[in-house]
Amino acid sequence: MGFRELLEDLDDTVFEVLGDPALIEGREVLGMFSAPWLQPKLGRINTGLREPHLVIRVGDNAGVEARQAVVIDLPPEDGGGSYIITNIEPGGDGLVTLVLRKSP
């Protein structure tokens, strides 16, 4: 088994256990959702990132475009709700970050 296959197996396990369910234009995906304004405050690390984002696997990114609707299946207190994709940022590591904006 090659390195890429090992990482794919690892990603499958991590996303299955820790992933947040989301719908992108009605298609189910598992991703890692983050809403920076909800993060615990540990120390004084200031990152420039303020937008909510969803990290998905490259294989789940097929057909995803800016301005598509995303619904994060979490309680509102955890940032769940409707969003719009504002930017798509491939990471070069098999993951893609979807930068989101809260839907009106």
Question: Could you describe the 3D structure shown?
Answer:
The protein is α+β, with helices and mostly antiparallel strands. It has a single domain, classed as Beta Barrel (Thrombin, subunit H). Helix content is 15%, strand content 38%. The protein has one helix at residues 3-18, and strands at residues 20-24, 27-34, 53-57, 69-72, 81-90, 95-102. Strands 1-2-3-6-5-4 form a six-stranded antiparallel barrel. Strand 5 (81-90) and strand 6 (95-102) form a beta hairpin. The longest helix has 16 residues, at 3-18. The termini are far apart. It holds the Pfam family Phage_attach. One of its GO terms (biological process) is virion assembly. InterPro entries: Phage_Head-Tail_Connect_sf (IPR053734), Phage_tail_attach_FII (IPR008018).
Largest sheet: 6 strands, antiparallel, barrel
Poorly predicted spans:
none
How many structural domains in the coordinates?
Answer: 1
What is the class in the CATH system? Mainly Beta
Strand order of the largest sheet: 1-2-3-6-5-4
Q: Please identify, by name, the CATH architecture.
A: Beta Barrel
Average pLDDT, all residues:
86
Report Rg: 14 Å
Q: Which structural class is indicated by helix and strand composition?
A: alpha+beta
Describe the protein's topology:
Elements: H1 3-18, E1 20-24, E2 27-34, E3 53-57, E4 69-72, E5 81-90, E6 95-102
Antiparallel strand pairs: 1-2, 1-4, 2-3, 3-6, 4-5, 5-6
Supply the key terms.
single chain; 6-stranded antiparallel beta barrel; Phage_tail_attach_FII; alpha+beta; 104 residues; Phage_Head-Tail_Connect_sf; Thrombin, subunit H
